[in-house]
Write a structure and sequence with these properties.
With 401 residues, the protein is an alpha/beta fold. The chain has 3 domains: 152 residues, NAD(P)-binding Rossmann-like Domain (Rossmann fold); 128 residues, no CATH class; 71 residues, RNA polymerase sigma factor, region 2, helix turn helix motif (Rna Polymerase Sigma Factor, Chain: A, Orthogonal Bundle). 44% of the residues lie in helices and 14% in strands. It is built from 16 helices and 11 strands. A 7-stranded parallel beta sheet has the order 4-3-2-1-5-6-7, with helices on both faces. A 4-stranded mixed beta sheet has the order 9-8-10-11, covered by helices on one side. Helix 4 runs parallel beside helix 5. About 1% of the residues have low confidence. The protein binds magnesium ion (MG). The site of magnesium ion (MG) has 4 residues, from helix 7.
Length: 401
């Protein structure tokens, strides 16, 4: 008999999962994983921002009676259609409702896939309850990494990364000592305009930005992957998740999106994690950890030609990556300011208010307009986030960008 690498449970009991952000693309993939493993995973709570009809369909399909909606209008619509939900459904509302679901006594794991920073409070509640936090919303660590990681340590709760690159790093680091890691390299597909000449970038439309070559994702993330702001946010996230210095986190262009990370060790050896670009792989890894089971999507087919290409990132072409790396070196609330200003600028671009190339200008202006400081508590970071949103909005409203 072969020895095992890690202790794994011999008879896996069902893990009970709460899914916050059930109607988005991460949510849909999570439901595919849960549906494929009824013997190992059970959905016990679901929440969405506003799409109550889709949420009701999910609740019926999985027999879930703990349901949450963030948006007040959606709550009202859902209350007007109780027959859409399973009998005995308890509907909770707003941020308090999502946070309550995160604390559900029957849940083992809470997967937070809420867009933006709305998931912060539910994520902290998950850790405080000592449950596993499967984290897909990267903004949470960018905004409050210091406090989220402290909360995880305090309650000895596990933080399982769901973002493909961080999940890949997590897999490569298992069984290795922290001191043995030289650096972590996250791969970036380069997004929709990877091969576009600079002149063409000036005329990019929201529709162009939403055509991602490898991944099907929401509009905000798709724009962020075209500007590489997404990779910048991921480097900041990696810094917190794995306790690394800014200079230990790097990015490399890898157009095929098959290698999700490279971890370089002290001796120069590198480990990589490979799988097709489908979120079901990292989601399943996080939900079943430390067990493994057959995946939802097919594995890589090595009977066919598989070319893997790596190119250095030109930060002149992707100024948001350069700015993100600067915020990592500065620390304090700089990463939070970067994130907030980027959210405002991307929303303005998607709304047709500013050109694509103005997104980094709004972010750079906002970073320069606010004095950085080391936050003592969460309200201090939230205040910096709010100020950054005001400054970014004022800048793009009062200037022709
Ligand atoms: Mg990613």
């Amino acid at each position: 008999m072969m020895g095992s690498f890690v202790a794994s449970s011999t008879s896996p009991s069902r893990k009970r999962v709460v899914l916050l952000g059930a109607t988005g693309s991460i949510g849909e993939n999570t439901l595919r994983v849960i549906a494929a493993h009824p013997d190992r995973l059970e959905l016990v709570g679901v929440a969405a921002r506003a799409n109550w009809e889709k949420l009701a369909a999910i609740a019926r399909r999985f027999g879930v009676r703990q349901v949450g909606l963030f948006d007040p209008a959606a709550v009202a619509a859902a209350r007007a259609h109780p027959q859409a939900f399973p009998d005995g459904t308890r509907l909770v509302e707003g941020l308090a409702g999502l946070t309550e679901l995160a604390r559900l006594p029957e849940a083992d794991t809470v997967l937070v896939a809420v867009v933006g920073t709305t998931g912060l409070e539910p994520a902290l509640a998950t850790l405080a309850a000592g449950k596993d936090l499967a984290l897909a919303s990267k903004e949470i660590l960018v905004l409050a990494g210091k406090f989220v990681m402290a909360e995880a340590r305090r309650h000895r709760a596990r933080l399982l990364p769901v973002d493909s690159e961080h999940n890949a790093v997590f897999q490569c680091l298992e069984g290795h000592r922290h001191a043995a890691v030289r650096r972590v390299v996250l791969t970036a597909s380069g997004g929709a305009f990877r091969d576009w000449p600079a002149e063409r970038l000036a005329r990019v439309t929201p529709a162009d930005a939403l055509r991602h070559p490898n991944w099907a994702m929401g509009p905000k993330v798709t724009v962020d992957s075209a500007t590489l702001a997404n990779k910048g946010l991921e480097l900041i996230e990696a810094q917190w998740l794995f306790g690394l210095r800014a200079d230990q986190c790097a990015a490399v262009l890898h157009p095929q999106s098959i290698v999700h990370c490279l971890v370089e060790f002290a001796d120069g050896a590198m480990l990589a994690q490979l799988c097709p670009p489908s979120m079901t792989f990292p989601i399943q890894h996080a939900l079943l950890h430390p067990d493994r089971a057959p995946g939802v999507d097919s594995a890589l087919d090595l009977s066919r030609l598989l070319e893997l290409e790596f190119r250095p990132v030109d930060e002149g072409r992707f100024p948001l990556l350069r700015l993100a790396r600067e915020t990592m070196r500065s620390g304090g609330v700089a990463p939070a300011i970067f994130n907030a200003a980027n959210e405002v600028a991307v929303a303005a671009f998607l709304d047709g208010q500013i050109p694509f190339l103005a997104i980094p200008r709004v972010v750079e202006h906002t970073l320069g307009a606010i004095t950085n400081f080391e936050p003592e508590d969460l309200p201090a970071v939230i205040a910096a986030d709010i100020e950054a949103r005001h400054r970014a909005q004022a800048h793009l409203t009062h200037h022709r960008l």
